[in-house]
Amino acid sequence: MTNTLITGANKGLGHETARRLVAAGHTVYIGSRDPERGRRAAERLGARAVQLDVTDDASVEAAVKTVEAEGGLDVLVNNAGIEARGEQNEVAGAADLTAAMMRQVFETNVFGPVRVTHAFLPLLRRSASPVVVNVSSGLASLTHVTEPGHPASAYPGVAYPSSKTALNMVTVQYAKAFPDIRINAVEPGFTATDLNGNTGTQTVEEGAEIIVRMARLTPEGPTGTFVDASGPLPW
């Protein structure tokens, strides 16, 4: 039995990833800040709910105890993420971005995965086939963002792309430090979710494809990579 924890899994890409992994035979923990939303999502999917706020040490530590008591952890999907937005709910560009906004985004998108991964490392290292999937973004690619004409180069936000670039570096360094764990960053694509006001150009079913694929890696699979459904992406 493969035990899998997905953060931010009560909706969107996390929810669809959970659905697919339950269907593949995983025991899936729906990590959700809101216990009631997590419980309802878990009931819908035949999964287990665990209250988990990636920005809160006590919440994460309690989740570790719950998962450990119920059998340990094999796969961690760091999916929870936010974007910085202004008063009109528009993406905060360089002129409007404050340090406080940047800090809030990094707290969830960078410090959150570090906090959760660090806390669950002892359980992952006991697994025979441990895997970590960090849900990144094509906007993390410095190559694409600086390429004239590439869709990523037109994105005005600062905090979100910066946080995902940082997450990619975290992924690489963790992969080197723990060669027995498959640790990769994935780009789901521009998926219609609450994060972008459902303006994405693909469905959650399409977006979850690469997350699910990398969550099911064997010990012989790649590590320290940045990929989308079509293959490797430039850093």
Report what the structure shows.
With 235 residues, the chain is of the alpha/beta class. The chain has a single domain (3-232), classed as NAD(P)-binding Rossmann-like Domain (Rossmann fold). Helix content is 41%, strand content 14%. It is built from seven helices and eight strands, in the order βαβαβαβαβααβαββ. The chain has helices at 12-23, 35-45, 57-69, 99-124, 142-145, 159-177, 204-215, and strands at residues 3-6, 27-32, 48-51, 75-78, 131-135, 182-186, 226-228, 231-232. The chain has an eight-stranded mixed β-sheet, sandwiched between helices. Strand 4, helix 4 (99-124) and strand 5 (131-135) form a beta-alpha-beta unit. Helix 1 packs across helix 7 (204-215), helix 3 (57-69) packs parallel to helix 4 and helix 4 (99-124) packs parallel to helix 6. It is globular and about 50 Å long. 46% of the residues are buried. The model has no long low-confidence stretch (mean pLDDT 94).
Characteristics:
235 residues; alpha/beta; Rossmann fold; eight-stranded mixed β-sheet
